[in-house]
Amino acid sequence: RDGTAATDFSYAYSSKENKMAEPIAVVGMAMRLPGNVRNGDEFWQLLVEKRNGLCDVPQDRYNVNGFHDPSGKPSTFRMNKGYFLQDVDIAQFDTSFFSLSKAELERLDPQQRQLLEVAYECMEDAGATSWRGSNTGCYVGVFGDDWQDLNAKETLHKGGYRVTGYDDFVLGNRISYEFDL
């Protein structure tokens, strides 16, 4: 390949009916991945160059030296690196862009805030202009409950949004609701 993104449409056979399954097409793409990957071209370059996003634990996340022990003592971990989104600043979120109230947006898990932005970028990348009310699928994979864990320790929780703002089950629904899919 010449280093540009390409799409192969592979046809799969259904084992039940021995018929060809209908092909699918990826029309738009946006992402935030370790290794400073924000779009399909950057993802393609990461793959072509055989790089990965492994990096040192950012100092603003936690004190890795307080938990790291290469010997693996109890209550420590051997690894002092990880896959972190280094180019994401959750404080840089335009609360006026989405229809949710400013109070709700401020309480949202950063994953939800990022996903709102990435979903919009995906629609832009696809050239979609009138998605509201459309029959568009929204599929979200997520791992991690850090925001929920942090807020569970908050003794003076103010306002609502504890369920809709923190739990990962809401992510796909948040996108479907916000974009009226």
What does this structure look like?
The protein is mainly alpha-helical and 181 residues long. It has helices at residues 40-48, 102-107, 110-126, 146-152, 162-166, 171-178; strands spanning 54-56, 81-83. The protein has a two-stranded antiparallel ribbon with strand order 1-2.
Salient structural properties:
single chain; 181 residues; mainly alpha; two-stranded antiparallel ribbon; 6 helices; globular; disordered N terminus
Would you summarize the structure shown here?
With about 180 residues, this protein is mainly alpha-helical.
Would you spell out the secondary-structure blueprint of this structure?
Layout: H1 40-48, E1 54-56, E2 81-83, H2 102-107, H3 110-126, H4 146-152, H5 162-166, H6 171-178
Antiparallel strand pairs: 1-2
Helix pairs in contact: 3-6
Largest beta-sheet characterization: 2 strands, antiparallel
Number of strands: 2
Termini Cα gap = 36 Å
Anisotropy-based shape: globular
Class based on secondary structure composition and strand pairing = mainly alpha
